[in-house]
């Protein structure tokens, strides 16, 4: 978390959908909402879990990842 990365673990099929949506040149928006604990893209709206301590710290602004908007050139999705 201190490195500016937020790990969100999703099932493989959801990750495939998210990767496809992120590559869409017209609407490649991906939203990770810590308040609602959901990841949203054009074809996906799925819950994720996060330790309550990390969630609270993100919401209180203790981590840089709280930014509402992400620089598209720096936002990277990885399959593990």
Q: Going across the biggest sheet, name each strand in turn.
A: 1-2-3
Low-confidence stretches: 65-74
Q: Roughly how many Å apart are the termini?
A: 17 Å
The description of the largest β-sheet is: 3 strands, antiparallel
What percent of the residues sit in helical stretches (DSSP H or I)?
10-25%
Q: Structural class, from secondary structure content?
A: alpha+beta
Q: What does this molecule look like?
A:
By secondary structure, the protein is an alpha+beta fold. It has a domain at 12-66. Helices cover 24% and strands 14% of the residues. It has helices at residues 12-22, 52-59, and strands at 31-33, 38-41, 44-47. Strands 1-2-3 form a three-stranded antiparallel sheet, with helices on one face. It starts with 11 loop residues before the first helix and ends in a 21-residue tail after the last helix.
Helix-strand layout with pairing:
Layout (H helix, E strand, L loop, with lengths): L11 H11 L8 E3 L4 E4 L2 E4 L4 H8 L21
Antiparallel strand pairs: 1-2, 2-3
Characteristics:
alpha+beta, 3 strands, 80 residues, single chain, 2 helices
Structure described in brief:
This protein has 80 residues and is of the alpha+beta class. 24% of the residues lie in helices and 14% in strands.
